[in-house]
Amino acid sequence: MPKGSPELTNARKEEIINACEALYKTESFKDITIKEIGNIISFTRTSIYNYFQTKEEIFLALLGREYDRMSEALNELTKERPILTGDEFARALAHLLEERVQLLKLMSMNHYDMESGSRPERLTEFKRSFGRSISSVEMCLKQYFPYMTEEDRRAFLYSFFPFMFGIYPYAFATEVQRKAMTDAGMEYPELTVYDMTYNCIKRLLNL
Question: Measured between alpha carbons, how far is 100 from 89 in angstroms, rounded to an integer?
């Protein structure tokens, strides 16, 4: 770990993650390199290794930050709207994911590569962020649906989070993928993040 104040360390880590995020908007996971990230940051490229040893660790930190932002949004929701019906909750969570396309993209692509290419301590940091997001959704369930049992909540959580991994590919198919489905005689349904999430949550809540 580099010498310096915690503030400097955190600022540089954020700068590296931000650079990775900027590149990921136009490039794929496999094409982005630490060298490219180093060309964007304000300090030397070799200094990146003081904070992250692989690009997988950088991407995992970016995904962890997205989970934290999801948690923050959910916590804010429970404060601003202490009471919601099942339909209102489904709509609120659908809107929340609709605004978190980066999270959905990262979840659906190269998730295994990110985890397997990261050191245990970085993976633990990520799992804490992931755990906070699960806790935030569970907190919503406890607040809005007090009749749900622990078993009900667990069933919801471990259906909803795996579902999230598949949202992005369905909502953002490429032109090549669409053409291939047409050539294969398959219909491509026009699905949005909002519609898929809303319908999923309604079914999980038996609405």
Answer: 17
pTM: 0.91
Cα dihedral 65, 66, 72, 78 in deg (nearest 10): -150
The band of 149, judged by pLDDT with boundaries at 50, 70 and 90, is very high
> 161 is written with which tokens?
């989070």
What does the block give as tokens for 57? 């660790």
17, burial (CB in 10 Å: exposed 0-12, middle 13-18, buried 19+): buried
The confidence score (pLDDT) of residue 45 equals 74
Find all residues with CB under 8 Å of 201, minimum gap 6, and list them: 89, 90, 93, 94, 160
Q: Whole-angstrom Cα distance, residue 32 to residue 92? A: 34
Residue type, 5: S
| Angle (nearest 5°) at CA 170 between 77 and 134 | 35
The domains found in the chain, sorted by start residue, are 1-51 (1.10.10), 64-204 (1.10.357)
State the residue for tokens 């916590």.
75
End-to-end CA distance of the chain: 51
